[in-house]
Amino acid sequence: MRNIKLTFTLLLFTMLSTEFALAQDWPQLNKYKEANAKLETPAPGEKRVVFMGNSITEGWSNHNPEFFEGKPYINRGIGGQTTPQMLVRFRQDVIDLKPEVVVILAGINDIAGNTGPSTVEMIEDNLISMAQLAKANGIKVVLSSVLPALDFSWRPGMEPAPKVIALNKMIKRYADENGLVYLDYFSAMADAQQGLKSEYTYDGVHPNKAGYEVMAPLAEAAIAKAMKQKQPKGRSK
């Protein structure tokens, strides 16, 4: 009984510490602050790419690190984040790094309500704001579809699949209408129920190594397409 009480106390302390830290740094600007400071300005001819996202982006470096090896790819994913948090840190974690391209993958945690209730329209608004900030600073934009999901282990019963589909339609429409590259992970990874194929995930939401291996060539093709586009008006290269 004593061990159970101790474990519960430690768990509660960890949860409260995490909540306190987030309250002090809600967008988690300190997560990559030191790493960003160490990054040098891109060398002449370097085609830097920043991946902005949540745990699906962050986990890519853990489950499929070879995707990033030997390439000017920078992972700026933060687990659990929603689009308003990413929008706040977008200048620090994307614009200031002076990439040629940004690959944005976000929205599933908004649907889960991680930082409060959110409509698909609200999510789209934040994604549009990030895209506009990138273009205004001469950065080419890849907007990714949200990956399929039938349920959330941390917040069951929310039935996210219809919202994911609706959001992806909005993202694609905006990308098409504004000359941005739309990166469609969903079509390659969805099962018959519009959830994430079991062979590509370990929890129904996050990709495993096989999932990232499906995503990798799709991302590479989208980046190559974006690289060929005319440089947006903004900072000079």
UniProtKB/TrEMBL annotation:
Q: Name one Pfam family in it.
A: Lipase_GDSL_2
What would be an example GO MF term here?
Answer: hydrolase activity
Keywords assigned? Hydrolase, Signal
Provenance organism: Pontibacter anaerobius
Secretion signal span: 1-23
Q: What is the name of this protein?
A: SGNH/GDSL hydrolase family protein
What are the residue boundaries of the SGNH hydrolase-type esterase domain, all occurrences included? Answer: 51-214
